[in-house]
Amino acid sequence: MSDLLDFEAYKLRRNSDPDTSHEAAESLELTITKLQGDVFKVIEKAGMKGLTIKELCSLLPGTSGGTYSSRPNELIKAKLCFHVVGDKRKAGGKGRAGNVIRASKYKKKFREEDGLYYFK
Whole-model pTM above 0.85? Predict the structure, then answer.
């Protein structure tokens, strides 16, 4: 079994994008590891609320936090997730505040609702 997950081209572009964007999405092979895919699914399921790394690790039991804690940054670099600079919260109201990470499909909606424009 492969440890890579393929992303379908239709997930890499919007229907309203020009034809050239559709062609580029078709030609691009985006693969992520199974571990990154597991993390992405949990972040995507969190919806607009998003997750901090501490919250993410608590939802993926069975391994140490270090196994999952670096995956969101990898997903941000792949443009599958984002976080807003300054948007932080404490997991469970305790401890240090952490960045809130959301799936990129919520980026436009988040921007429209909150008027925040500083994405990483």
Answer: no
Contacting residues for 93 by C-beta, under 8 A, at least 6 apart: none
> 47-79 pLDDT, tens per residue?
988 998 888 888 887 767 678 888 888 898 888
Q: How far apart are CA 76 and CA 68, in angstroms?
A: 14
State the sign of the Cα–Cα–Cα–Cα dihedral 61, 65, 69, 70. negative
Q: Is the pLDDT of residue 109 over 70?
A: no
Domains of the chain in sequence order? 34-114 (1.10.10.10)
Contacts of residue 49, Cβ cutoff 8 Å, sequence gap at least 6: none
The dihedral through the CA atoms of 115, 116, 117, 119 has a sign that is negative
Can you give the length of the chain in residues?
Answer: 120
CA gap 92, 90 in Å, rounded: 6
- DSSP code string of 14-71: -TTS-HHHHHHHHH---EEEHHHHHHHHHHHHTGGG-B-HHHHHHHSTTS-HHHHHTH
